[in-house]
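Troubleshooting: if your tokenizer reports a length mismatch, compare against these two reference records.
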Amino acid sequence: MATATPPDPIYTVRVYVDGQAVLYTPNTTVNQLLWMANGQHTVEVVAEDTAGYIATSSIQLNVIGQEPGALNIQDQNTWVSCSATISNSTCAAGLGTATSTLTLHQSSPSLDGSAAKFSIAGNHPYSNELYWIPLGGGNSVSHFTYDLWFYVDQGDAPQSLEFDVNQAFGGTRWTWGSQCDFDQTHHWNVWDPLHEVWVPIPVPCDHFPSNTWIHLIWTLERVGNQVHYMTLNVADQTYNVDTYFTAQPNWYQEEIDIAFQMDGNYKQQPFSVWLDEVNLLAN
């Protein structure tokens, strides 16, 4: 963990591993995961305040083992959310601003006694809410397994449910976005990050049963400047997706994060989704 305490407000903090920026944050405290290969590394923290002053601190370390990834992410208290826009830019899109809440550490329904409850409502049809959580940074990992369980109380209420993984460094952002489009394509869609469009894949997706735990596993990889959607396992059925897209260029931040989005339907019918045992494995 690193903390910056300058006289003027912090503007940015960046973490470098062996000279490569791998993590960006506007926060004064950095307490996140850094993925690094085993061996000797130099880690440098660079903080810049609003007056333009820069402070740095660096350490040498030797990595001898790694955790498999970020585990039980649903329990973390650093989730961030937005509805249609954020800072005058498109966020969750849709046709209105949703009303949404997140409640952590729900014992029921839950698989392990600590689920996160995401709820959405509102007064305008087709309003959405996007939740994401910064996990850390690193350029040494290129294979991801996004493994989670979800539970919908009103299975016919969502317009769609979205599950994403993002990795960014070196001016490029690799986004593996997926959504179960219940009411339009009735298929899973995946995100083309270069053209910023959803592309249907031949994997069926209809409304999930109410009050039922559904297991979702995506296997994903970064290949050069491309995202590779490898396989999708949903409700114990595995599909070989094997689809590539070019990553998004000209990205100025560095981060590894996951995201979850709920989309409202034509009635903006209220519903809740519980997430449990949310893990992002990376190597």
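Reference record two:
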Amino acid sequence: MTAYDFTIELFCRVDDVLKEQTKHVLAQLYPSEVVTLGLLQALRGEGNCAFYRWVEKELATLFPRLPERTRLFRLFVQFENLCQQFLAQPTLFGVADSFGIELVHPWRERRTQREVARKGLSNHRWIVGAKLAVVTDDCGQIVGFQVKGANVHDTAFHTLIETWKETMIVLADQGFKAQDPAPKKKAQGKKKKAKQTQGDEAEEVLPTGPLAPTNPVNLKICPKGQWNERMIVETVFSLFTSVLHLKKLTHRLLAPLQARLAYTCAAFNLCTAWNGEVKLQLASFAL
């Protein structure tokens, strides 16, 4: 299937889901067209300038009213919330894990205060970027996601897991386990008065600081070698890296990065369930 034919079929599937979305009277593109272009960029896995040149060259007849480049990518951020309609429904069991994304070179860290990139660990090595946490169903389809700086711990994504505390049990590794609160220690104080006997000593409880956050009720921490069904999320991350080229991006601000990841998750769900049956294969959709 050529890129031209694939774009037409992709637009038809997107428009069936977003058929209730109306076009603004001054807009040049329908919401379905904007979402389709966002999905195409996620599948190509390239930067903004390269993707815009490709659309002008290959799909000019399909999008004759294509807006200017910067305006188009602002529209991607504006219609990012429509990607929520392409996320999968929760199942009885799900899997959660985090994925590190490199955004800038370490020498360019904190050039501006607005950038989302932070220094953190990913796959046992240092990166300057962001961390994407995804929750998948038992088939590998993405149910939800959240993005934060790479310097946060995996427990910062507990709020994402708590979203389905009534409907889904989420399996995760030891990185999502909240630290057990430190036991209270007791210390012996000084004698209150000189008249007290030698054995009469006051006891004082040392401050232990704020307690560590607790695990969500629907989170199940899986030790290494157990519940290997959660390895399905590693297949998802492998497709993110090899086909969607998500390991290295060039976004600096949170809003464009979150929009890019939203379109990526939506494109992943659409393509893996293209024929009605979920198959974790994306090689045939690489443009």
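Descriptive notes for reference record two:
- The beta strands are 93-102, 118-122, 125-136, 142-149, 169-172, 186-188, 203-205, 219-221.
- Confidence is low (pLDDT under 50) at residues 187-209.
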